[in-house]
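COURSE: Structural Biology Practicum
ASSIGNMENT: Worksheet 4, Part C
STUDENT ID: 0417
INSTRUCTIONS: Below are two proteins. For each, the amino acid sequence is given first, followed by its structure token string. Answer the questions at the end about the second protein only.

PROTEIN I
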Amino acid sequence: MSEGSLEAPTRHPIAWRDDDFYNADKLDAELRRVFDICHGCRRCFNLCDSFPRLFDLIDGAESGELDTVKSADFAPVIDACTLCDMCFMTKCPYVPPHEFDLDFPHLMLRARAAEARDKGVPFAEKQLTKTDRNGKLAAPVAPIANWATKTGNGLTRPIMQSVLGIHKDASLPKFTSKPFTSRAGTAPEVNPQGPAFGRKAVLYATCFSNYNNPDIAVSARAVLAKNGVETEVVYPSCCGMPQLEQGDIAGVAANASVVAGALKPWIEKGYDVIAVVPSCALMLKFEWPLIVPENADVITLSKATYDITEYIVDMGKKEGMAEGLKPLQGGVSIHISCHSRAQNMGQKGAEMLRLIPDTAIDVIERCSGHGGSWGIMKDNFDVALKIGKPVARKAAEKAAAHVVSECPLARDHILQGIERINQKPAEVSQVQHPIQLLALAYGL
């Protein structure tokens, strides 16, 4: 055994089909084992609200130790975990193969799965996980849906807070009336002179770029075509990250089977798979193989998947980039999202933007505090802004013309943080994702 996690961290398959996974006594024993180790270490105190809650809970107990803490009081600690994986990836010295075998995010997932099996997923949270259904229902009435969910709507947002528990001030993604898949029939012309001509890739559109901001996927496809990459679009189902957040592992497994089956023929024909949102890339690459390790299609897909920024950087290093990139005026602040970092691929979004000549790129690598659906809930929104305040403060100080994140939801959350600091709307472009900036630099 070596101290300090000197070996590369590894993860075990998630034993969600085993009864012991949900056994209350065994789960409680594991929570107490891990919480005791975390309380004695405290290296993760500044990552998210789970750890301050845990340390305050134990420090405030009668003995100042875990033995006088009631198991019923663990709930706030478990609820505050956003499954960002940053403790596992960047901080914890006791992750496997260390003998302490500590995987805090997956233990929180286990606790949520046990609660979901015992009590079910709360109504509001369950509806938020149905991203495909919500997107399909909203598309025909997108202007009305966007009016109803707009921050500042004094008629609908208080009702949403009361009924669904969504904070009335939390920024929510807009819906599009023309999902990306409905536009995918007309592919951009592939540049035969592009340096990467001969490459073929499938864009896994993701629910966000399909139903909320298709410009992300449109920009990705245009940049790839400019560089000679032939693309197809496939989107059979959501990756299941929203379900994972609520402990619905069986739902994630079902989505994995559908998506992997649909992408298998393309992989067999030599196509790479590109996800345009990092949470989805993380699911395809790393979470799915741990949930259904016996599914050969999932394993094959995990090895063929790239994040869009990762793919562009790889292409640039191996074949080079097509000419025509122009400087972006006013500079860029780019936030490296937690789920980008959890892919263990480096700051690929920043690397990609540095391909643009004579453009100031400022990198912010710290949690935005959003945490998927977690940060929009009434009980969490103010905490989410507090966690993300260092990110918002740095972006506000730089005052770049463009503030982007590889996670579009994190980007909008950062803008809300900037607004709180400056007491006025953030004066930045509407661009959310770095791939849109690369397309802009190409004039696409």
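PROTEIN II
(use this one for the questions)
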Amino acid sequence: MVPRLLPSLEGGRRAAAEDAGSSGRPAVRDGSAAATATDEEAGFQVGPEFERFSQRDDVFCRSFWDPSVRSHRSDMFYETYRTPKMKWRSADGFNRRDYALRNASWHVTDVFAELHEGADRREGFLDPYTAVREGPGGRAPVESPEEMARQLKRAAKTLGADLVGVTGYDERWVYTHNYAREQEEEKPQELSGDLKNVIVVAQSMDRDLLRTAPSALSGAATGAGYSRDTIVLLSIAQFVTNLGYRAVATMNDSALAIPFAVKAGLGEYGRHGLLITPQFGPRVRLGKIFTDLPLAHDQPLRFGVEETCDICRACTDACPAKAIDGGRPSTVVHNRSNIQGVKKWTTDAEKCFRFWSNLNTDCAICVRVCPYNRDYARWRHRAWQWLAGTPLRRLALWLDRVQGRGKRMAPGRWWEAGGDVA
């Protein structure tokens, strides 16, 4: 349940990108590590004090073994996702129908996560997915990494992916160890370093549901995103396996998703610590497939997010937990749940999770208020994104404020609307 680093996009390029299901950036010749985008191209600032991250230190894992994070409220936070009977709150957005929809939205992902709990595996969250059947044997010929990448993206879109990009394996973003929940200790990393290509997919989340954040109802957007992500990841992994190549599907497990997504050209890193995409803003869930299928790599895209976030404080000001960095990017870390040695905006994960526990559902206020959280099927929102990518971005942010976009919608109104309430 973890919601987890250009010029303007003119209409022709946007349409071509959406048709291809990719980032819209040109792919690089050859699927080798040398073809992967550099840190400078991706906007990463990694210092000599960098240390790889163990999943045991993720705040959600710490909420099971670390008494400084775990509490009665955090236990109840998890319990309400599966308990058939509980005391329902009367507050709008937190009644039985809201929790019923939220929990139903998680059902598909939970089924796969619980398949091998007897073996101390929680696939998709703590361990890679294994529900992929053996392929027919023999490897299908590949005309070129470029052509294979084009076909892969076409297939991924057909299988339900909203966005697809390809980059190279980078051990820095792979967890040193996975986490065994039953034993409450580290266990060996399962990923093999010889799977040199990473397919990154993004699934959009329902914007109207997220407008009701914070609420149990808005949590249905998160759960539905994860359930779709599970189906798409397993389907793409099966496609690659059927071609005779290896494919390991991962979601929140095994590696940090955002650095791979940035290098795969899906978006930029935002102040709130989330990926911001040109197509959906921060309203996405991410998944990764590690593979030896020869694939050309995509290049990072820049459309003004870093410059806009540098002067915008919408998420910082709206965060009830005061967990979101309001200053300039730095290497400051708040606690062991932050990665060491990367200069960036860093969110205080402990404060964020404590608010979630007290709220008894995931929050998403930062997603709701983000100026990039827009419906880009509408021309006025595409025009706003273009303006935010120019030196007139202060005007874009002023327009965002005066238009009142990002205000919370009453959850009861969502139930009554029966359709788009924008």
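ANSWER KEY EXCERPT:
Q1: The chain has a mean pLDDT of 90.
Q2: The first strand starts at residue 46 and ends at 51.
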